[in-house]
Write a structure and sequence with these properties.
Number of strands: 15
Pfam families: APH (PF01636)
Distance between the termini: 39 Å
Order of helices and strands: EEEEHEEEHHEEEEHHEEEEHHH
CATH superfamily of the largest domain: Aminoglycoside phosphotransferase (APH), C-terminal lobe
CATH topology of the largest domain: Aminoglycoside 3'-phosphotransferase, Chain: A, domain 2
Shape: globular
Mean pLDDT: 89
InterPro entries: AGP_Transferase, Aminoglycoside_PTrfase, Kinase-like_dom_sf
Low-confidence stretches: 1-26
Largest sheet: 5 strands, antiparallel
Organism: Cordyceps confragosa (Lecanicillium lecanii)
Helix content: 25-40%
Structural class: alpha+beta
Strand content: 15-25%
CATH architecture of the largest domain: Alpha-Beta Complex
CATH class of the largest domain: Alpha Beta
Protein name: Aminoglycoside phosphotransferase domain-containing protein
Length: 271
């Protein structure tokens, strides 16, 4: 039976979203910093809750966590989300486990295949959700979020796959030869299913406990995208060792044509 996720507009009246006047400076002293960049910081607050905060954090990640919870996906449980000036903070449960990127190099082929098949099951769960109508983009309906090799890019929210393809073509360098541009356009399809997508399935975003996937984290790229998007992003994002060799066990389908086209287009746009 198909599970249905009904997209709701976020309002300050929702009980799990708080517009509290907090900022990165309000984080209590003595907390443990788990991860930090110029645009975001992840801190352990009390041993059980994690706060992700900064200008690079988006409300779309909080909405993505809510969708994941509706699908029964192993992911952090959202406590609340708040905004202050240009910062967004997301408070969530700590997922107990070890990062897969630390474990992967020492695992046997059998263990790696087992984890890949667990992830395949999670992807299938995600694809059982019915998408909101007329939406390709982030779960908060604000943008197409497109992290490539190094940087995140944002495009306008799309209402169908044709407009999504327009975004992809618009991301090409202006000096892209017209014959190439037209060839890309001619080969982009418009009949894919739109499915719930994580967007960054790399070992560092998978936490393990006793041989099982305890949680998938970092949902900032999540949203509703054409079914091939998870796969092409999987191959585009940097990952450890032989991770990408297990794609055939991870993905329920193979998107060979889409992968070739996307990889070729990447030659003609910013990384």
């Amino acid at each position: 039976m198909e599970r249905i996720w009904k997209q709701k507009k976020t309002t300050s009246a929702e009980p799990n979203l708080s517009e509290a006047s907090q900022s990165e400076d309000d984080v209590e002293p003595g907390i443990i910093v788990l991860y930090k960049t110029a645009m975001r910081k992840v801190v352990l607050e009390s041993g059980r809750t994690v706060l992700k905060i900064g200008r690079g954090v988006t409300p779309g990640e909080a909405e993505g966590l809510k969708v994941a919870a509706a699908a029964g996906i192993p992911a952090p449980r959202l406590h609340n989300m708040f905004k202050h000036d240009e910062e967004v903070g997301i408070r969530m449960d700590l997922v107990q486990g070890q990062s897969l990127d630390l474990l992967w190099p020492t695992m046997s082929t059998y263990e790696k295949k087992n984890i890949a098949e667990q992830l395949r099951g999670i992807i299938r769960q995600m694809r059982e959700l019915k998408p909101p109508p007329n939406l390709i983009g982030s779960c908060d309906r604000t943008a197409v979020r497109d992290t490539r090799v190094r940087f995140m890019y944002e495009g306008p929210i799309c209402h169908d796959e044709d407009s999504f393809n327009n975004y992809l073509i618009s991301s090409l360098f202006s000096q892209t030869p017209s014959m190439l541009r037209e060839s890309f356009r001619d080969n982009l399809q418009t009949n894919h299913r739109v499915v719930f997508t994580h967007g960054d399935l790399t070992p560092r975003n998978i936490l393990m406990h006793s041989g099982r996937i305890a949680g998938v984290v970092d949902w900032e790229e999540s949203g509703w995208y054409p079914e091939y998007w998870e796969s092409v992003k999987f191959f585009e994002r940097p990952a450890e060792d032989d991770w990408k060799e297990y794609a055939e066990y991870i993905f329920p389908g193979r998107y060979s044509t889409e992968l070739i086209i996307y990889t070729a287009m990447s030659r003609w746009r910013n990384a």
